[in-house]
């Protein structure tokens, strides 16, 4: 099979497209012929060495969807030939034509759900569900979504509309059209100087960007508003002081880490996949990159040139 291999930490060009032996499923595992592999910002962090040690050489990729084509010992024959999606864990072989997954990680994918949509929801979607648990959106809310044209941001816009809230999305350039087409009440170009002028009395900020954007977004909150932090794509966390919170009796909540884990990852995945099947969530997916172009996918994601979930297709 062909797979992406990495031999040392560094830039995207370190991702090499190579022929390697087919993996064999071990006890309690299946082999999946990959139809779509998810690319996440965390993958770029792992690639650069900022997420902890890994064993080289490695094949990155934590999310795959496809067909089960081989079974390890102890796995029920009913899985053979099934359409599935799975989160593989940390940097665990997803950027490949074939991948192995633990049987307990599998979710069946209905025939009317695309592999691209499924892989968009298994990791990104479970995080979205966890963040929404913390946000507790209601019809009375006015929600500001940062990075509203991204894989997570697009789902936040949808959920805000699902509960009857008003929603403003931040994006840039042509991405603003995607935000409006996704149901936002307004879309604002956050790269424009003074983008927040006149924006006030937000009740919720969903902040995945951090830095100056997150800090400015905090200032748009009205009395009793809440900022839900789920990332810092800018490279720096949103600076928040007690004084800033005191001014309008604001609250700030970090939705990642232990808070995300309270329900358990499988429960979050179950809700995410059920939301996909029911139409509650309709993931925005960037036009897929070929597997051999994984480096280009990383570069595009890091430069914010993508819209929605980034996916590789073998």
UniProtKB/TrEMBL annotation:
Gene3D superfamilies: Medium-chain alcohol dehydrogenases, catalytic domain, NAD(P)-binding Rossmann-like Domain
Alphabetized InterPro entries for the sequence: ADH-like_N, ER, GroES-like_sf, NAD(P)-bd_dom_sf, Quin_OxRdtase/zeta-crystal_CS
Pfam family, one: ADH_zinc_N_2
Domain of life per record: Bacteria
SUPFAM superfamilies: GroES-like (SSF50129), NAD(P)-binding Rossmann-fold domains (SSF51735)
CDD domains tied to this protein: MDR_enoyl_red
Record-linked SMART domains: PKS_ER
Keywords for this protein: NADP, Oxidoreductase
Domain Enoyl reductase (ER) residues, every copy: 10-312
Protein name: Oxidoreductase
